[in-house]
Amino acid sequence: MEESKIVLRSVFGKVGMKYYIQPSRDKNGNWPECVKQVDSFGNMIVSDAERNSGKPFIKVTETFTIEDGKTFDLTDPWDQARWEAIKNCPMIADFRGQRDAKGNLIIDGDAKRYGRAELYIERPGAETAKKVSKRQKIHDAESYIFDDPKGAEGRLKVARILGKHMSHASDSDIKDYLLEIASRDPDKIIKLYTGEDLELRTLFLDARDKGVIRSVSGIYVYGDGISLGGTIDVVISWMRDPRNKKMLESIKRDTYPELEVTNPEALKKLNKESK
Questions:
Q1: The domain containing residue 137 runs over which residues?
Q2: How far is residue 174's CA from residue 272's CA, in Å, rounded to a whole number?
Q3: What is the pLDDT of residues 74-124, one digit of tens each?
Q4: CA 210, CA 69: separation in Å to the nearest integer?
Q5: Domains: count for the chain
Q6: Most C-beta atoms within 10 A of its C-beta, which of 31, 54, 83, 167?
Q7: In this structure, are 35 and 86 located in the same domain?
Q8: CA–CA separation, 212 vs 84, rounded Å?
Q9: How far apart are CA 215 and CA 230, in angstroms?
């Protein structure tokens, strides 16, 4: 399987460059379990149990010759041991654009310093799998948009939550807007459709537009200065808190007084998320 293979690539490509790498310690200074010390005669030091285990072990003094395209099959015990022995070498980056803890490029470095690594890991099939996963997410996001159970009304609501006021736009224009977002950030669309707070976000926007919820010094407040939070997400969390159920009901009544008068059952769908 491609996922079980590691391919080392040289930044210089296939030019015959050779690298001579010995086993390396991990970031904590420990040797991999498969790497063993040697005695004064160069013999590997292993216990009887290790010798009889059938497991492959690598001498700490062993040198591996690596060229561009060197492949390790991790389903093969010896190949896996060889890879475990050298994978922590500073010459090897996890991927082409890897950066260190300070943000410096491990391979390319910057204007003031050269990078330390000249090899990087290539995982066959990994990039393709990533692309397929992204395309699947886009497909899922598009399906939510096209199959919105509330049709045009639902899509308009989602667009509004995303900050786009399209009450006078056609459903086709709203679809086009949402599909464009789905192509760039499918997770955003999927989260809105699969999350539990779509109705609460709509309530917040309506309450804010009607002045039921106000922003005072960067804090959203209700009524006589009841603090709800500094961001929309914090306000939604406040609304979902069971301890605030009575206050949430009050916000709903103030936001939709016509529903309470004409149809007492109409607010039930908003109550579902506050339970």
A1: 127-195
A2: 27
A3: 999 999 999 999 999 999 999 888 888 888 888 987 766 778 899 999 987
A4: 64
A5: 3
A6: 83
A7: yes
A8: 62
A9: 9
